[in-house]
Write a structure and sequence with these properties.
By secondary structure, the protein is of the alpha+beta class. The protein has nine helices and twelve strands. The chain has two domains: about 160 residues, no CATH class; about 170 residues, no CATH class.
Length: about 350
């Protein structure tokens, strides 16, 4: 076999390409299976499988490129170039003309596919010159497919058992939660709690805050931005009846949107308070027990894993809390099946 430096570099290119694709597939597999058990759990089947699409696509491209490096290399190269241009175009429309530093910063995320595709094209050249299978042997194929499978099984063994053991007493009505610093009644299922809309998702923070603004309801508010004052005065919770089952035509101010501190303090684990305290910032709250998506605060079988809070972070973003006690922010006009809400009031 030719041992010239040129052939050595071609061999090295193939091995580097296989390593990059395997690493990428493993990373997407870890992300996808983790998100499936975190965000996807509770969505109707087969929607949770959407989180595995990037990993499945990477695996398919990896196996294709390993067996047919010329075809796979061109697909990766052209796909990476197209994705890079799309990525830059989206950034241009959202942020205006990006700086050279910002463009360069996007390359590792998007244009890496082009690099990997180019390496596979070099691998194809090496195979043509050497007459060998290069990195397309059984061992490499087994590693490429086996490592992501091992990651998926490991994450499943760690994440699935706690999900199956979640505490759920079946109660979906009016609930009272008393914990250190918190004593609140929480709305029953209905318009005051996870009111699913016709389009399949849940209202955004803006929608909830502007509910009472003409035209009254959750629609027709496109382009408007609410603030914390709107959430109190015209928010959906202000129109909720005392039993939490209907919405009135005028504000009653019996119910309100809970604060970040109240949401965090009401989190539970196995039917008891998790004793969580908010430090005023973003990130995980300090908890005596690790809270979970359990009754009485959550509906373990419903899609939402985040609850909107009453406070706004700035003019365009508002706070939300997840079932693990992590506080974060999201644009006020953002609404999807994972962002829910629940009105609260004093006992």
């Amino acid at each position: 076999m030719d041992s010239s430096p040129n052939v050595f570099l071609l061999r090295l290119a193939g091995r580097l390409a296989a390593t990059l694709m395997t690493l990428t597939t493993c990373l997407w597999t870890f992300w996808g299976i983790s998100e499936l058990y975190y965000e996807g759990w509770g969505l109707p089947f087969p929607e949770p499988l959407a989180y595995l699409v990037p990993a499945a696509l990477c695996l398919a491209l990896s196996l294709l490129a390993l067996r047919h490096p010329r075809l796979g290399g061109w697909i990766l190269f052209l796909g990476g170039a197209g994705f890079t241009l799309l990525w830059w175009g989206l950034a241009w429309r959202r942020l205006g003309a990006p700086t050279p530093a910002a463009l360069v910063g996007m390359i590792p995320v998007s244009a890496l596919l082009c690099v990997t595709g180019g390496l596979f094209l070099l691998e194809a050249r090496y195979r043509a010159q050497s007459g060998t299978v290069g990195v397309g042997g059984r061992t490499c194929l087994a590693l490429t497919g086996g490592l992501p499978l091992l990651i998926a099984l490991t994450v499943t063994l760690l994440e699935l058992p706690p999900l199956l053991r979640r505490y759920d007493d079946g109660g979906r009505g009016l609930r009272r939660i008393s914990a250190p610093g918190v004593d609140l009644l929480w709305a029953p299922q209905g318009p005051g709690w996870n009111w699913k809309q016709a389009w399949g998702g849940y209202p955004s923070w803006n929608d909830l805050a502007l509910y009472g603004k003409p035209p009254r309801g959750l629609e027709g508010k496109s382009g408007l931005w609410a603030d914390a004052g709107d959430m109190q005065s015209s928010g959906l919770c202000a129109y909720l009846s005392a039993d939490g089952l209907t919405l009135s035509e005028t504000p009653l101010y019996i119910w309100r949107m809970p604060t970040v501190e109240e949401l965090v303090g009401s989190l539970t684990r196995n039917g008891q308070s998790a004793a969580c305290l908010w430090n005023g910032g973003l990130g995980p709250a300090a908890c005596a027990l690790r809270p979970d998506k359990e009754t009485p605060l959550w509906d373990p079988s419903a899609p939402p894993i985040y609850y909107w809070a009453a406070e706004e972070f700035d003019s365009e973003q508002a706070y939300f809390v997840n079932y693990r006690g992590v506080v974060n922010i999201q644009p006020k006009d953002f609404g999807n099946p994972r962002h829910g809400y629940r009105c609260a009031r004093a006992p």
